[in-house]
Design goal:
With 363 residues, the chain is of the alpha/beta class. The protein contains 10 helices and 16 strands. Helix 6 runs parallel beside helix 7.
Length: 363
């Protein structure tokens, strides 16, 4: 009886430890919960995967690292097919508890499985479900069949970009390129007078294109009627016509002087500018903050042109319509730029669309 009881005791204790281990392996806390214990609860925290240490690091929203925390970096293995010529290497970044997926396309690896790091700061099922939903919304696949092989190319779902003007001063574009920035929207000018061309426009676009960064432009509007919008459009065209642009020409309508205008007036001003540039064979887009797009743009504008929405310090812009680009921060830090810089995501392969349709200076 004594020996039997010892065995039962050992089994019971083992089962308890097993259940504890299982529970610990499946229940996690969010970045905010961890951060709230150590800092001002009005601020947010985010996790960033560090490939050098093979783990996640916790930062405040100002960028200060909280070194006392470490995380388990789980993994998901996916087999690399011999017919895949490129694949997306996916990393995840958590901003205020919501997963943001960014990707970078790399050359085809050798056939062994590719390890994809996963954030385990909350239940893995939730993280994987959101990641899958996000990728499915934006990833497109093109398959080409030849006599001998089938080649599948997986397009990236998100491209990392910035937008700049003369306010960023002198930019080291080689460092910007090396930091992972894939595209830039450059201010070509503002208003309707010839002396309102951005003082750094020609310098910026030539230098950015020289290092291989895809470029688009934007024009800041002060137009209060369609006649002024047309003058702005013509000045914009005369400024950019000597360049081949792989990203859109965006009409930036957000100035406080325009806030008193009606939805019809704002929409007509926007259409006038965009229609003129389209007539010159440019791919156009409309930039504004989310609330203005929601309240001052009618459906004929929102459905007709690509939208570049601005809404910062949020996990998702408060705009229910479709958009091709999102300006998500005005306080970005990028190597090669000494000032704060706006950060953007693009969800379309604009270079492919523009070149295929022979727009923006391409023949």
């Amino acid at each position: 009886m004594i020996r039997f009881n010892k065995k039962i005791s050992i089994l019971i204790v083992s089962a308890i430890f097993f259940l504890i281990a299982v529970n610990m392996g499946n229940t996690y806390v969010s970045a905010e919960e961890i951060f709230a214990d150590k800092a001002d609860s009005s601020k947010s925290a985010y996790l960033e995967y560090d490939e050098k240490i093979g783990n996640f690091r916790l930062f405040t929203d100002e960028g200060s690292e909280m070194e006392e925390f470490t995380y388990d970096a789980g993994s998901e293995n996916t087999e690399a097919s011999d017919t895949v010529t490129t694949q997306a290497a996916v990393t995840t970044t958590v901003i205020t508890g919501v997963i943001r997926v960014t990707t970078s396309t790399t050359a085809k690896p050798t056939s062994p499985a590719k390890t994809v790091p996963e954030y385990t700061g909350r239940r893995r099922a939730d993280a994987l479900a959101e990641r899958s939903s996000y990728l499915n919304a934006y990833t497109t696949t093109t398959t080409t069949t030849t006599k001998a092989t089938t080649t599948t190319t997986v397009s990236k779902s998100v491209y990392k970009g910035i937008d700049v003007s003369r306010h960023q001063g002198n930019i080291d574009w080689n460092k910007v390129k090396a930091s992972g920035i894939e595209f830039v929207m450059i201010r070509a000018g503002y208003g309707m007078e010839s002396d309102q061309v951005d003082l750094k426009f020609h310098e910026n676009i030539k230098a950015a294109q020289a290092v291989g960064i895809d470029c688009g432009v934007y024009w800041y509007s002060y137009a209060l009627n369609t006649a002024e919008a047309l003058r702005e459009a013509k000045l914009c065209y005369n400024t950019i016509k000597g360049y081949k642009l792989t990203y859109p020409v965006a009409f930036d309508i957000e100035d406080p002087s325009q806030s008193h205008l009606t939805m019809t007036e704002i929409s007509n001003i926007t259409k006038t500018f965009c229609d003129y540039l389209e007539g010159q064979k440019y791919f156009v887009a409309v930039y504004s903050y989310a609330s203005m797009l929601n309240s001052k743009m009618n459906s004929s504008v929102l459905s007709r042109y690509d939208i570049w929405v601005a809404h910062t310090e949020v996990s998702k812009p408060n705009f229910s319509g479709k958009y091709g680009m999102w300006q998500y921060s005005w306080k970005g830090k990028v190597n090669g730029i000494s000032t704060d810089v706006d950060l953007d995501y693009s969800y379309k392969n604009y270079p492919e669309l523009i070149k295929k349709n022979k727009l923006n200076g391409f023949k």
